[in-house]
UniProtKB/TrEMBL annotation:
<dbReference type="GO" id="GO:0003712">
    <property type="term" value="F:transcription coregulator activity"/>
</dbReference>
<comment type="similarity">
    <text>Belongs to the Mediator complex subunit 5 family.</text>
</comment>
<comment type="function">
    <text>Component of the Mediator complex, a coactivator involved in the regulated transcription of nearly all RNA polymerase II-dependent genes. Mediator functions as a bridge to convey information from gene-specific regulatory proteins to the basal RNA polymerase II transcription machinery. Mediator is recruited to promoters by direct interactions with regulatory proteins and serves as a scaffold for the assembly of a functional preinitiation complex with RNA polymerase II and the general transcription factors.</text>
</comment>
<feature type="compositionally biased region" description="Polar residues">
    <location>
        <begin position="1001"/>
        <end position="1015"/>
    </location>
</feature>
<protein>
    <recommendedName>
        <fullName>Mediator of RNA polymerase II transcription subunit 5</fullName>
    </recommendedName>
</protein>
<dbReference type="GO" id="GO:0006357">
    <property type="term" value="P:regulation of transcription by RNA polymerase II"/>
</dbReference>
<keyword id="KW-0010">Activator</keyword>
<feature type="region of interest" description="Disordered">
    <location>
        <begin position="924"/>
        <end position="948"/>
    </location>
</feature>
<keyword id="KW-0805">Transcription regulation</keyword>
<comment type="subunit">
    <text>Component of the Mediator complex.</text>
</comment>
<keyword id="KW-0539">Nucleus</keyword>
<dbReference type="InterPro" id="IPR014801">
    <property type="entry name" value="Mediator_Med5_fun"/>
</dbReference>
<keyword id="KW-0804">Transcription</keyword>
<dbReference type="Pfam" id="PF08689">
    <property type="entry name" value="Med5"/>
</dbReference>
<dbReference type="GO" id="GO:0016592">
    <property type="term" value="C:mediator complex"/>
</dbReference>
<feature type="region of interest" description="Disordered">
    <location>
        <begin position="992"/>
        <end position="1018"/>
    </location>
</feature>
<feature type="compositionally biased region" description="Polar residues">
    <location>
        <begin position="931"/>
        <end position="948"/>
    </location>
</feature>
Length: 1035
């Protein structure tokens, strides 16, 4: 027999029980026939239940042989006769189980734990125990609960740690076989049978339970998550659900369950997910309401999360939402510059994104998605008889044609499809497809040629990415080579076309563009040995003005540029650009430099002519030092004029030199000082108005000066207009201020930031009886109503900048309550999913670091939901709305993104295949010939289409896993997962559960060795035990 060959046992009683079971198994004695002999044996040779269970299980099969069925019948007899308890059997079985195997056993090393049999023994034993407990054959007394729970928890822990250790050793490869899965399933069934019985709830009355409950719950959860769920068992999740019921719930002193916040949140049911037209419309509006936030990886990550891999719907909705944003801009009569920005996104960025996704749209094609999208896009945004409807339609039709031209350039549509969509014959002109490399090669040899590319018609027909990449690469190359002369020419070109920078920023990060410029200006070397200083000052002025112009125009912070928090000249100048230095705080060098500049500007000869700014003045003063002294120079000049040292004409004549190109950027600091300077406290109002008249209306006809001057006015106009309006209100007699305000007004709206204009805010609030909270709610209702409509309806009018301003004015709490109220009311009306999508889009909309209002709303929402006590005090429907809103917001905050690096990287205009390959979306040789037919000046060949099969590819997997910053970290497992402690987990408690009852034996020490009694003549032991039993019990 497989279990023969046991060593002699030291305990006579144990050896007696072993001999009985062994001979009964040899003689094939049934359990029913063995009942009376065991009863007599228990009276003669009484021993512990743990010893009996160990002796009986010592007879299990060895070396992989199937166990004798009589073993399980005998186990059932022992349990039902109360010779041993469930805990005794489980502990004895655990001692001999493979789950106690150490790591070295896999290599054939000798182990102290006997490896016996196959997992089927444990599986059958667990199944037997579960059946006995379920049918009522076995029940647990209050004293047995402790031991049984102890044994069961040890099994759960041992199985979990054993399986986890196997996974570590196998480097994550599957380690479960069918037999092992059966054993783990049976163990789970046993745990549920014992712990799930209603009678087990009485364990809460035991004095040891409150202390041990957390450990029991932890082991139940670990086994469920890491074993049952790992093997996809049908029992997975049941043990987790059991831990949410008494007695496993934490209870207070009165025995009432303590429900934690997570349980409250989980009790709120989820609404169906709605991917509304309004949700993506809001998100794209936020991306384009200021500086473009249109990084490829960020956008694709968000879209993949939102549409969960449904790339066909993604492509259709992206195109529809882009047209919705453009239509909204026309309906709101936005500035031409903003409309141009949105149109560039539609005609340049969207086709490039569609080209990236084209291989992942199977079974559809990009052409089919575009055709489907235009069934929901209407060119008639206004009723035909309404004023302006024809003009809006004309603009939208032009944008549609430019979009089709760009799609043809990217091989996304054919002319036949375009004609089918537009219902008219279309003949697209053949335009060249630019590449960044081709453009950069030309511009490196002739920088001024870049201007022809910036005004090229194809800039709005699909070539913007290549031109943007060229701009960034040429700037980086010139800065790296310190070619300041060529860089000055390039900066003057970009200053003349400063509005094109928002198109460049659709493809480049601020650090890509500004970091090399800021570094060059900071490290500028002022060579005092050179013969002429005006050219160096001119070069510095052009580079500085372009840098400041971009920073002010788009509200870019030092963090976004990727520079250190201090020590950079450009941002030090931005921070103190309006601050003059008191004379007492000037250093000797600064005093000398200021005196030289003052003398050069205002000193006159015998004929009354100023000497001008000589090379000697500039020799002693580096450009950085001069621009830091400009506010002080203005202050001292105004003070001299006020005190009569200088006449107004002399003041204007001297400072007129600052209008020369090599000093023109100094007007930024000078005019900023005027804005900061009080109109009332110094009695120099007329002097300052004369200065403003001189500086704001330059007499130069030079195009270069006019372009530079216009950029300066764009920067200084908003604060200067507010200052002049304040002066006009307090001093109506100063008519000159009104004329200056009118002059500056066109420049006020040139900044492309997320800050709303006062006129927009007043208009939005006025539509809601002046109540900003009502304005928020009305806006949400309009968006939900539009999202719930069917057909190609024009979008509801929406301004994300105004929503941000309202958030800042109302505060995050009031905005959050307004959004929650709308979700609550629309849920009651059956539109909860649509309202939830709209509100989540508002809360999760992207923003720049300078805008904190939306982040504050998100933080407030998170804190509100975590404060479960306060949440429970709210009306149930309101609390549910907040919980649902929080869930969706947190889900969208886990968008897979490629982190934006804080330092500049060259922007490259890559082919679709190159982008796909870098994101891990293409085959190794995909895109090998991507540039074969895309050289500069060559017409695009629309016949070449990639044939790679990506029909089964999920785009989200290529973008990297989602990152959730809000979930708690997983507890780290110990290094040696198999070295399970043999200490009693309940050993430190008082085990005397009943003062008068029997003392339980929790020792796990087994019987050393195997009883080798097969050759002993002990058959007559049954004669002594059975006495006068019937003759049919014959061995």
């Amino acid at each position: 027999m497989p279990w023969l060959g046991s060593d002699q046992m030291a305990d006579p009683a144990a050896q007696r029980w072993h001999t009985v079971f062994q001979n009964a198994m040899l003689r094939r004695v049934t359990a029913a026939d063995l009942a009376i002999p065991l009863k007599q044996l228990s009276m003669e040779r009484s021993t512990s239940g743990a010893m009996i269970a160990s002796v009986l299980l010592d007879l299990r099969a060895r070396r992989g042989v199937v166990d004798d069925p009589l073993l399980f019948h005998y186990i059932q007899l022992v349990l039902e006769s109360s010779y041993a308890s469930t805990g005794d059997v489980l502990l004895a079985l655990l001692k001999q189980s493979r789950v106690m195997e150490k790591a070295g056993d896999a290599n054939g090393e000798e182990t102290s734990v006997r490896l016996t049999g196959m997992p089927t023994c444990e599986e059958r034993m667990f199944t037997l125990l579960a059946q006995l407990h379920l049918n009522g054959s076995l029940s647990l007394t209050s004293s047995e609960m402790h031991q049984t729970l102890n044994a069961l928890v040890r099994w759960l822990r041992a199985a979990h740690e054993h399986e986890y250790g196997k996974q570590l050793r196998s480097a994550g490869l599957p380690t479960l076989d069918p037999l092992t899965c059966g054993m783990y399933d049976a163990l789970g069934s046993l745990a549920l049978a014992i712990l799930g019985k209603h009678s087990f709830r009485s364990v809460a009355e035991q004095k040891w339970w409150q202390q041990r409950r957390p450990l029991v719950v932890q082991e139940m959860l670990s086994y469920d998550m890491h074993v049952l769920q790992c093997m996809q068992s049908q029992l997975s999740g049941r043990m987790q659900a059991l831990t949410k019921l008494p007695p496993f719930l934490e209870s207070d002193a009165d025995g009432r369950p303590v429900i934690n916040g997570q349980q409250i949140l989980e009790s709120v049911t989820e609404l169906p997910i709605a991917q509304t037209r309004a949700g993506l419309y809001i998100w794209l509006s936020a991306c384009l309401c200021g500086r473009p936030l249109t990084d490829d990886a960020t956008m694709l990550g968000y879209l993949q999360t939102r549409y969960n891999g449904d790339n066909q719907t993604l492509a259709v909705h992206l195109l529809v939402a882009s047209f919705d944003v453009l239509t909204n801009a026309h309906l709101r009569s936005d500035s031409p510059q903003r409309i141009k920005l949105i149109r560039s996104f539609l005609c340049n960025k969207v086709p490039s994104l569609l080209a990236i996704m084209a291989a992942f749209l199977a079974p559809m094609t990009a052409e089919q998605c575009i055709q489907m999208a235009f069934t929901d896009i209407s060119m008639d945004a206004l009723p035909p008889l309404e004023a302006g409807s024809a003009k809006v339609r004309e603009k939208l039709v032009e944008a549609r044609l430019a979009f089709f031209q760009a799609c043809a350039l990217h091989h996304l549509v054919s002319e036949a499809s375009i004609s089918s969509i537009t219902q008219e014959s279309v003949r697209l002109p053949k335009i060249p497809r630019f590449t960044k490399e081709g453009l950069a090669n030309q511009c490196n040899s002739n920088v001024s040629q870049l201007e022809s590319f910036l005004i090229h018609p194809s800039m709005m027909q699909g070539n913007a990415g290549a031109i943007a990449g060229c701009v960034v690469e040429v700037i980086n190359n010139l800065c790296m080579n310190k070619d300041s002369m060529s860089l000055k020419t390039l900066c003057n070109v970009l200053i003349r076309h400063i509005e094109e920078m928002e198109i460049v920023l659709q493809y480049a990060q601020p650090a890509d563009l500004l970091q090399p410029l800021c570094t060059l200006l900071n490290d500028w070397v002022h060579d005092q040995e050179q013969s002429e200083f005006t050219p160096a000052y001119e070069e510095f002025a052009s580079i500085l003005l372009l840098t400041l112009g971009i920073i002010y125009r788009y509200g870019i912070s030092q963090v976004e540029v990727g520079l250190a928090s201090n020590g950079n000249f450009v941002f030090e100048l931005v921070g103190d650009i309006s601050s003059s230095i008191p004379r007492s705080e000037l250093s000797e060098e600064q005093s000398a430099q200021l005196s030289k500049w003052t003398e050069g500007l205002f000193a006159t000869d015998e004929q009354g002519e100023t000497s001008g700014i000589s090379d000697e003045v500039m020799r002693q003063c580096p450009p950085q030092a001069f621009y830091k002294l400009v506010p002080t120079l203005f202050e001292q000049s105004a003070l001299a004029c006020k005190s009569g040292v200088l006449s107004v004409d002399a003041l204007k004549g001297g400072l007129e030199l600052l209008l020369e190109p090599f000093l023109l950027p100094s007007l930024v600091g000078g005019l900023a000082w005027v804005v900061k300077h009080s109109w009332e406290d110094h009695g120099d109002t007329d002097i300052l108005l004369h200065l403003l008249e001189k500086f704001l209306r330059p007499s130069s006809s030079s195009q270069e000066v006019q372009a530079m001057h216009s950029v300066i006015l764009d920067m200084i106009a908003p604060p200067l207009v507010r200052s002049l309006q304040e002066l006009s209100r307090k001093r109506p007699d100063k008519k000159a201020a009104i004329g200056l305000i009118e002059l500056l007004q066109p420049h006020v709206v040139q900044r492309q930031t997320m800050h709303a204009y006062a006129a927009e805010l007043h208009e939005w609030a006025a539509t809601s009886d002046g109540a900003l909270t009502r304005a928020v709610r009305n806006n949400v209702r309009d968006l939900v109503s539009w999202a719930s409509s069917v057909g190609p309806n024009p979008p509801t009018r929406y301004s994300h900048r105004t929503f941000l301003a309202v958030c800042q004015l109302l505060g995050q709490e009031r905005v959050l309550q307004a959004l929650a109220a709308e979700v609550q009311e629309h849920t009651a009306a059956g539109l909860g999913s649509q309202a939830l999508d709209v509100c989540v889009a508002l809360v999760c909309a992207p923003s720049t670091p300078a805008i904190t209002s939306i982040a504050n709303v998100r933080d407030s929402l998170r804190q509100t939901v975590l404060d479960t006590r306060s949440l429970l005090k709210k009306p149930a429907t309101r609390a549910e709305a907040l919980v649902r809103l929080s869930r969706r917001v947190e889900a969208q905050l886990t968008v897979p993104q490629i982190q934006q690096l804080p330092f500049a990287l060259p922007v490259q205009e890559q082919s679709t295949d190159q982008i796909m390959q870098e994101l891990g979306l293409a085959e190794p040789d995909a895109g090998h010939d991507a540039n074969a037919n895309t050289s500069l000046g060559q017409p695009s060949d629309m016949s070449q289409v990639s044939t790679a099969d990506f029909s089964n590819t999920d785009l989200s997997s290529a973008l990297g896993p989602a990152i959730d910053f809000n979930n708690p970290s997983v507890q780290k497992m110990p290094d040696d997962q198999n070295a399970m402690s043999t200490d009693d987990i309940f050993g430190d408690l008082d085990l005397s559960l009943d003062a008068g009852g029997p003392q339980l034996d929790f020792q796990q020490s087994g019987i050393p060795g195997d009883a080798n009694s097969s050759n002993q003549k002990d058959d007559d032991i049954f004669a002594d035990i059975m006495g006068d039993m019937n003759a049919d019990f014959d061995f």
